[in-house]
Amino acid sequence: MKVSCLNKISQFGLNTFNKNYEISEDIINSELLMVRSFNMHEVEIGPNLIAVARAGAGVNNIPLEKMGDAGVVVFNTPGANANGVKELVIAGMLMAARDLIGGNNWIKNNRDDVNILKTIEKAKSAFAGTEILGKTMLVVGLGAIGGKVANACDCLGLKVIGYDPYLSDEAKALLNPGIEINNNLEESYPIADFISLHIPLLDTTKEMFDKTIFGQVKPGVVLLNFSRDQLVNDSDLKVALEAKTVGKYVTDFPNHFVANLENVIAFPHLGASTEESEDNCAIMAAKQLMAFVEKGEIINSVNYPNVKLDSCEAKQRMIILANNQPSIAREIAKIFLSIDDLVKAKVSKVRDNYAFYAFDIDGDIDKAIINALEKVDGINKVRVI
Fold it and tell me: Three-state secondary structure along 105-150?
């Protein structure tokens, strides 16, 4: 089975594939694609493609609906790069609190001064900052990254307030006991010294941080955005920075407009750019692709439902990926009438617009059955393992 990479993928990840997989440059004929930040919205979907794995968390560069309608499962790797992003968030917070960049720039600008050690004593007051101990951090989103940021800030002595209306019991159990959960942001904005964003970019979150929210925050708040640039309204941010409503804006996604604003600390999308993060993401992505190819199991999909499957005890396993509509199950049942006695196990699961079906069949599957399934309106892909 061919695997093609649209970006440079860690060799540790590629080495995870067993001998049944071939790393290939033949993108159009590959069954599997691995990607990081490459924009796939204009990429042609090859006839053999069954899955795409994003070695990272964000999937804005992948046309999820287009892939879903073609029966292509899209995976991401949540949590694999979480520690790398967490560490950069903490670094950004400290840089903003202590004006370390301003101080460093002063040294560079005055490095020819032979008396710089004396001059420093007069100049350093311009870069006096604040300590983070006892300050309040509001973490918006407590997923794989946000949860780690919250715990790290708690360990550093900040008061931490977490916001996440979709917080799972598993994620909540990983949080330090001292972290307060408050899903009323209006109560938290006025008391937060730092706000760290860890939410996905959706229609409901696009430009969520605008003049309305900037009118509620504690004056001089440090806003840290290590999620997506479009979560913040750029024009309103400019006004807030000029008015010192927002003291510093720290971001890993500096577009041209934001990169030219004062009091912005910006990094060139370095959050997951550590050797460890890239290795972890690639290894996780490769394992997910192999689980899907070899068992039909879906782990961390962002378009089709996640499905845990046991090993197939029958002769073959059929995987059907379809649109989520009631008629599909009825059509499958009709086609399966002739082999119903051979079906030893079946699983079905739906998620939003898409459905997954797995059948363990103790016998040969006639090609006519596969052809009949593929002709059903709404069935996107049929595969026999």
Answer: HHHHHCCCCCCHHHHHHHHHHHHCCCCCCCCEEEEECCCHHHHHHH
